[in-house]
Design brief:
Radius of gyration: 23 Å
Strand content: 5-15%
Distance between the termini: 19 Å
Structural class: alpha/beta
Order of helices and strands: HHHEHEEEHHEEHEHEHHHEEHEHEHEHEH
Strand order of the largest sheet: 4-3-2-5-1-6-7-8
Oligomer: single chain
Number of strands: 14
Length: about 475
């Protein structure tokens, strides 16, 4: 990894306090609800100005939408790295440590660098007299870290609130939107989605290339009009899935295809392809050679065959730690998924069925710790009823130990949900905590061919790793 150089904010006097790594974590944990009404982003804009307007100088790609944002960023970063670029990625939320939010060429930020950058941002905020919340601080840390690392391009997740998210201080080269769905009343879904479209397209600036993986023609038409009115450049929506290994193509193929389009647009349209010398590029078309290739050229081509995008996807690992991860070496097999809304739950249940088709399961238990207050519980119960009509198994519901910075404000009523599931003739029980739920689940499935699924929220996935004694991913 490249050496990180310190950047002194212009026209400010550095505050002397130097916090330890754990002190910065404590500071972040305590400030998620600080100044959350700053919808005009004035706080982070002032902070950015103190650092010389880093955001405007960053070649940024923003990824928004309902589901699949982190996975899309993961794939896009890998593709851009393959093209010879130094790529920064900013994810949300973290599972165990804040370090997970910052990646440079697929490597997480070190504790030392995290501490240095964190101190610099927090002290600068105090010097200029602003009170940023934790998301503001982490966003500024990401931009500063990527600048100091001489990053060529940064791929940033719009974790919530669209235009009001701190990453929107950037002037994105590309804005990608994964999917748009609603967890609220089905009767008002069209109005809710329309509001979401307006909010998410708020990240589009003049000259921003926009690509979307949503499947609703009406939503795509509405977005195209808004993008063009904003002076953005609307790109053909994603139609096909990327050819990932089974069963991941059906689950994540659309995210991978969106990532591929992001990388193609960036390499071929945003930057000057002539300025990049990449042998074996997956995304740029090589200049043709006139006449027949020489014997030596043929020989080199046979000895060093050019890797194709199809081979890239075939070899690509399709899981992302803490967000969707199949631990098939565990006994029994563990599936972790931070699904918390209806669309994500649908995809998860599809994934379980596909795994069952590939290798019949001998026992299945879903451990659900849901903290989404907007979840349409009636629709969620319908999903479970339909799933368990064709698949045998049981459900364990438990109250989650909420983590700072995670989406979700409160646990759903555990006993009420459990009783509702039982009323549909599905085996279900409640547990007091994750430990009790997980140990009960292990006893219900075959050690070799059974499956235990941990889902409902990012906090639920984090509880699995804590139970296993893992301190960082």
């Amino acid at each position: 990894m490249k050496n990180i150089k310190q950047t002194t904010p212009k026209d400010t006097v550095a505050v002397s306090k130097q916090r330890s790594y754990s002190e910065i974590v404590e500071f972040l944990d305590a400030n998620w609800t600080t100044n959350t009404n700053d919808t005009t982003l004035q706080c982070i804009k002032k902070l950015d100005q103190a650092f010389g307007s880093i955001a405007q100088k960053t070649n940024a790609i923003l990824v928004a939408g309902t589901n699949g944002k982190s996975l899309t960023i993961h794939f896009a970063a890998k593709l851009l790295k393959q093209e010879g670029l130094t790529v920064g990625a900013f994810y949300a939320p973290h599972i165990l440590t804040y370090n997970e939010l910052f990646s440079l060429n697929s490597e997480l930020i070190s504790n030392k660098t995290f501490t240095e950058v964190g101190n610099e941002v927090i002290n600068t905020a105090q010097t200029i007299g602003v009170t940023p919340n934790s998301l503001d601080i982490l966003t500024m840390m990401a931009l500063l870290y990527f600048k100091n690392s001489n990053c060529d391009v940064a791929v940033l997740e719009v974790s919530k609130d669209g235009a009001h998210n701190p990453v929107n201080i950037c002037n994105p080269k590309i804005a990608a939107i994964t999917r748009l769905t609603s967890d609220e009343s089905i009767e008002n879904e069209d109005a809710i989605v329309a509001k979401a479209i307006e909010e998410l397209t708020g990240i589009v600036k003049t000259g921003t290339h926009v690509v979307c993986a949503d499947q609703s023609k009406l939503s795509l038409q509405d977005m195209a009009v808004i993008v063009e009115n904003k002076g953005g450049i609307w790109s053909m929506p994603i139609r096909k899935l990327a050819a990932l290994a089974y069963p991941f193509e059906q689950l994540h193929g659309r995210c991978a295809a969106l990532a591929e389009r992001i990388a193609q647009i960036y390499v071929n349209l945003v930057i000057n392809r002539e300025s990049i010398i990449v042998s074996g590029s997956l995304l740029t078309k090589q200049k043709g050679q006139r006449g027949r290739p020489t014997i030596e050229a043929k020989r080199q081509s046979e000895l060093n065959p050019r890797k194709t995008i199809e081979q890239f996807w075939k070899d690509e690992q399709s899981s992302l730690s803490g967000r969707f991860q199949l631990l098939d070496k565990e006994k029994p097999t563990i599936l972790l998924d931070n699904a918390s809304n209806l669309d994500a739950f649908k995809n998860l249940l599809l994934g379980i069925r596909l795994l069952h088709y590939k290798k019949p399961l001998k026992g299945l238990t879903l451990i659900i710790g849901c903290t989404n207050p907007n979840l349409n519980v009636d629709e969620f119960l319908k999903l479970l009823r339909y799933f368990f009509k064709k698949t045998s198994g049981q459900v364990i519901v438990y109250p989650v130990d909420l983590m700072p910075g995670h989406n979700g404000e409160q646990n759903l009523d555990v006993e009420k949900i459990t009783n509702s599931i039982k009323s549909m003739q599905i085996k279900a029980k409640s547990s007091k905590n994750f430990k009790e739920a997980f140990e009960a689940a292990q006893k219900t499935v075959d050690e070799r061919q059974g499956l235990v699924v941990v889902t409902g929220s990012s906090s639920a996935v984090a509880e699995y790793w804590k139970y296993k004694g893992i301190k960082k991913l």
